[in-house]
Design goal:
heterodimer, A: mainly alpha, MetI-like fold, two-stranded antiparallel sheet, 13 helices, 2 strands, B: mainly alpha, about 75% helix, membrane (chain A), MetI-like (chain A), Spermidine/putrescine transport system permease protein PotB (chain A), transmembrane helix (chain A)
C-alpha cells in the first residue's frame, strides 16, 4: 500500500464524513430551500412553477400566530429554566467532588431518556385522571380536574424538564470554576450578599449562562414530540404544524417554506442574542 | 440559607425524576388509571407487550438501526477527529464546525428536507437511508467524545512508534486507537442512545414499514393511553439507565461536564 503521508491524510480521513454530509445533509437542505419557491400540485411539487406564494401564505395571521406562540413558549421555557437552574447549579458547585458527580448524573439522565417516554410520564401526572388531579380531588380541594395539559402549561412543563441540563451544566461549570477569593475580597470590602451576587458572581458566569440559554432556546424551538404529546392539536407549535402540512396535507412546497422560516427565525434570534450578549459582556466588564 | 438550598435542590430532583418513577410505578399496577393507594402488584402490562407484536418488531428495528448507524458514525468520527486533533491544515476550523452543524439545524427542518429529498430520489422508506440519516444526526456526539479522548493520547507515543518503523496508519491502529478506546466506546454509546431515541427526523422519513420503537410509542400515545406503553417505557428507562451508568463508568459523561 502506498504510504499515505503529509497533506493527503487529513483529506482521506475526513472524506467519508464530508461526502456523506454533503449528499445527505447539505444537498437535501438546499433542495428544500429550492422547493419552497415551487408551486404545489397533487403529485407533490410542481417544479415548472416559480412562486413566492408559499411565503405570502406564511404571513397570514393564523401562521404568524403559531410562530409567535412557538417563540413565546420557547422563550418562557428558557427564562424559567434559567431561574430554576441557578440555585441548583450553585448548590452543586458547593458540594464535594463525588456528590457533585451524582447530582450532575441526576440531571443528565432524564435528557438521555426517550422524549416520547418522558411525555408519557408527564401525561400520567398532568392529565385529567393523572396524579395531580386524582390527589387534589381525593383531598376535596377541587371538584373538576385542572387543565394541566393540552395547553401551553403542559408544553412548558415538558420542555423545562426535557432541556434542563443545557442551562444547568454550563452554569455549574462556570460556578465551580469561579475563584472564591474574589467573593471573599468583595465581602471583605464591605459588599452585602446581594451585591456580591449581582456585581461579582453574575457578571463572571454570565457568558456561560447565556450560552446555555441560547442552546436551550434552540432546542425548545425545534422540539417536536413534547409539544405534540403535551400540547396536541389545540395548541400547535411550528414543528407540529410543519408535520401536519408535510405528512397530512402533503403540501411540500409550503412545508419547505415553513422549514426555511423556522430555520431563519431560530438562527436570527440566536445571532441577535449573541450580539446582545457580546455587547452586554463588554458593558459589564468595562463599566 | 444552606438548608433552603438543599430543600430546593431536593424539590427539583423530585421534579426531574417524577415522570420516570411514575411510569415504572404504573407499569406494575393492574389498573388502567392512576389510583391511590398502590397496593396491588401485577405484571399484566408486561405480558400485554407481546400481544402487540408492533412493539417487539419496532424494538429490534431500533436496535439494528442504532447499532449500524453508531458503528458507522464511530468509525467515521474516529478518522475525522484524528485529523482534526493531529493535523494542522487549511479549513480545519471550518470542517470542525461543519461536522457539528447537525446540532445547529433544528431537527424538524432536517426532517422535512429528508422527506422531500428521499421521495424525489425514490429512497423513501428504505432502511439504508434511515441508517445514513442517523449517522449524520449522531455524528456530533461521537466526534465530541472521541475528540476529547484523542487529545489525552500523547503524540510522542505515536512518534516513537513511527520512529521505530511503523507507518502512520499502523501507529494509529496499534497505539492511538487502543489508548483512546474508552473515549471511542463512550462515543459509540452516545451515538447509540441518540439514534435509539431519535424521534423528530425519523418521524418524517418513516412510512409504516420502518417504525422505530420511539415512533411506535409516539403513534400509540397519540390515540390511546393504556399501561402497556408504561411497561414498554419502563423497559426503555431501564435500558437508558444502564447505558448512562456504563457511560459514567468509562468517563463518557465528562464530554458534557467539561
Amino acid at each position: 500500500m502506498a504510504r499515505l503521508t503529509g497533506r493527503w491524510l487529513p483529506v482521506t480521513f475526513t472524506a467519508p464524513l464530508v461526502i456523506l454530509m454533503l449528499l445527505f445533509f447539505v444537498w437535501p437542505l438546499l433542495e428544500s430551500i429550492v422547493n419552497s419557491f415551487h408551486g404545489y400540485s397533487l403529485a407533490g411539487i410542481d417544479t415548472s412553477v416559480w412562486t413566492l406564494a408559499n411565503y405570502t401564505k406564511l404571513m397570514e395571521p393564523f401562521y404568524l400566530g403559531i410562530l409567535w406562540r412557538t417563540i413565546r413558549v420557547s422563550l418562557t421555557t428558557t427564562l424559567l429554566t434559567a431561574a430554576l437552574a441557578f440555585p441548583i447549579a450553585w448548590y452543586i458547585a458547593e458540594l464535594k467532588g463525588r456528590a457533585q458527580g451524582y447530582w450532575l448524573l441526576l440531571f443528565v439522565t432524564p435528557w438521555l431518556i426517550n422524549v416520547a417516554v418522558k411525555a408519557f410520564g408527564w401525561t400520567l401526572i398532568l392529565s385529567a385522571t393523572g396524579v395531580i388531579n386524582t390527589t387534589l380531588r381525593g383531598l376535596g380541594i377541587i371538584d373538576s380536574p385542572l387543565q394541566l395539559m393540552f395547553n401551553e402549561t403542559g408544553i412548558l412543563i415538558g420542555l423545562v424538564h426535557g432541556h434542563f441540563m443545557f442551562i444547568l451544566l454550563p452554569l455549574w461549570a462556570a460556578l465551580a470554576g469561579l475563584d472564591r477569593s474574589l467573593i471573599w475580597a468583595a465581602k471583605n470590602l464591605g459588599s452585602g450578599q446581594i451585591s456580591v451576587f449581582t456585581r461579582v458572581v453574575l457578571p463572571m458566569v454570565l457568558p456561560a449562562l447565556l450560552a446555555g440559554m441560547i442552546i436551550n432556546f434552540t432546542m425548545n424551538m425545534a422540539a417536536f414530540a413534547t409539544p405534540a404529546l403535551l400540547g396536541g392539536s389545540r395548541v400547535r407549535v411550528m414543528s407540529y404544524l410543519a408535520y401536519e402540512i408535510n405528512l397530512v396535507d402533503l403540501n411540500w412546497p409550503f412545508g419547505a417554506a415553513m422549514a426555511v422560516l423556522l430555520l431563519v427565525v431560530t438562527m436570527g434570534l440566536v445571532q441577535m442574542s449573541q450580539k446582545v450578549t457580546a455587547s452586554g459582556k463588554r458593558k459589564v466588564l468595562f463599566e | 440559607m444552606k438548608l433552603f438550598f438543599r430543600l430546593y435542590a431536593y424539590a427539583i430532583a423530585v421534579f426531574m425524576l417524577a415522570p420516570l418513577v411514575l411510569i415504572v410505578w404504573m407499569s406494575f399496577t393492574p389498573d388502567e388509571f392512576f389510583k391511590l393507594p398502590f397496593n396491588e402488584f401485577s405484571l399484566r402490562w408486561y405480558g400485554q407487550i407481546f400481544e402487540h407484536p408492533g412493539f417487539v418488531d419496532a424494538f429490534f428495528l431500533s436496535v439494528r438501526l442504532a447499532v449500524l448507524s453508531s458503528l458507522i458514525a464511530t468509525a467515521f468520527s474516529f478518522l475525522a477527529a484524528y485529523s482534526l486533533v493531529r493535523f494542522v491544515f487549511p479549513g480545519r476550523r471550518i470542517l470542525d464546525a461543519f461536522f457539528m452543524s447537525p446540532l445547529l439545524i433544528p431537527a424538524v427542518v432536517f426532517g422535512i428536507a429528508m422527506l422531500q429529498f428521499l421521495n424525489r430520489m425514490g429512497l423513501y422508506n428504505s432502511f439504508t437511508s434511515l441508517v445514513l440519516t442517523h449517522v449524520i444526526v449522531v455524528t456530533p456526539f461521537a466526534i465530541r467524545a472521541i475528540d476529547a479522548a484523542l487529545r489525552d493520547v500523547p503524540r510522542e507515543l505515536e512518534w516513537a512508534a513511527m520512529n521505530l518503523g511503523a507507518s502512520r496508519l499502523r501507529a494509529m491502529w496499534l497505539v492511538t486507537l487502543p489508548m483512546s478506546l474508552r473515549g471511542v466506546a463512550a462515543g459509540f454509546i452516545f451515538a447509540f442512545i441518540m439514534s435509539f431515541d431519535e424521534v423528530t427526523v425519523t418521524i418524517f422519513m418513516t412510512g409504516p414499514a420502518h417504525q422505530t420503537l420511539p415512533i411506535r410509542i409516539y403513534n400509540y400515545l397519540s390515540d390511546q393511553v393504556d399501561p402497556t406503553v408504561a411497561a414498554v417505557s419502563a423497559l426503555l428507562i431501564l435500558m437508558s439507565l444502564a447505558l448512562v451508568l456504563v457511560l459514567d463508568r468509562i468517563g463518557g459523561l465528562k464530554t458534557f461536564t467539561k
